[in-house]
Amino acid sequence: MNTLTRRNFIRFLIAAGISISNASKATDKTIYIGITPVFLIELTSVLRDWQNYLEQKLNRPVIFVQRDSYREIIIELLSRRLDFAWICGYPFIVNHRQLRLVSIPVYQGKPLYQSYFIVPVRDTSTQSIIDLKGRLFAYTDPDSNSGFLIPRFHLKKAGYDPDTFFKKTFFSSGHRNAIEAVSSGLANGAYVDGYVWDSLTRFKPEFNKQTRLVSKSSTYGFPPIVAGPSVTPNMLLDFQKVLISMQNEPDAISILKRLNIDGFSLGKTTDFDAIKKMAIELGEFRNAQ
């Protein structure tokens, strides 16, 4: 998302009544929750309703803070400018000593998701990422499991060097943007979050029509909601209880449906062991904190 687009997006959110803040400093009175472009721009209304729901249940102001990358979110979590965040399993396991697991969303009955390998719809011959040797490839985020670790892992397991396999690679800053890059022909392929792909298919089916789904990865722990160092044990427990109970609350069921998830589960850190194993094999776990 370029600067102008992002500014227009934020203006729209403000006009829609959704609190988006720079979160210069978290306070005891307000809960700051970080989100990234894994959330669909089309879902602004559900963010507003979710914000209102959380404020009523927690009896505290809640502000969603949108950032363009997981790295920005992690920096603000660790510097205590954010309290909670919905991130990817990869940055969670890398920073597991400083972050605490709050909840894992349940998607299609399980706290799991897959990465989807996509190519332009006019490409009818590509059957795997190996077929894209020497071509253009879009990574979503350097801290993304589905959009970075998984494609690089597949290449390494096949005996290739991920750093030299493609003619050119770039980061799209989000799964939606990667889908758009493949649709427009800017990239010959990408791996994207299956949840985002499925949600776009459900809510905006025309968006995916210019891409072809080639294959799906194994399942991995769904992107979790985590707590940063600013969160007290009681605050974490309160937030966790509200999330877990949403599937039983009539006012929250419609929010869950519009988020395209079944609810939230307690989960455990070991749910992300498969991601950790990949990161270690790729040498991407050296800076674990």
Radius of gyration, in Å, reads 19 Å
Give the H and E element order: HEHEHEHEEEEHEHEHEEEHHEH
Q: What is the strand arrangement across the widest sheet?
A: 2-1-3-12-4-13
How helix-rich are the residues, as a percent range? 25-40%
DSSP strand tally: 13
Largest sheet: 6 strands, mixed
- Average predicted confidence as pLDDT: 88
Poorly predicted tracts of residues: 1-27
Roughly how many Å apart are the termini? 29 Å
Structural class category: alpha/beta
Percent in strands: 15-25%
Alpha plus pi helix count: 10
- What shape does the CA trace take? globular
Describe this structure in words.
A 6-stranded mixed β-sheet has the order 2-1-3-12-4-13, with helices on both faces. Strands 9-6-10 form a 3-stranded antiparallel β-sheet. A two-stranded antiparallel sheet has the order 5-11. The relative contact order is 0.19. It has helices at 3-16, 44-58, 70-78, 89-94, 145-157, 175-184, 194-203, 233-245, 250-259, 273-281, and strands at 31-35, 62-66, 84-86, 100-106, 112-113, 115-120, 136-139, 168-171, 190-193, 211-216, 220-221, 225-227, 263-265. Mean pLDDT is 88; it is low at 1-27. It contains 10 helices and 13 strands. It is globular. Helix content is 38%, strand content 19%. It has 289 residues and is of the alpha/beta class. It starts with a helix and ends in an 8-residue tail after the last helix.
Task: List the main descriptive attributes of the protein structure presented here.
289 residues; disordered N terminus; 13 strands; 6-stranded mixed sheet; alpha/beta; 10 helices; single chain; 3-stranded antiparallel sheet
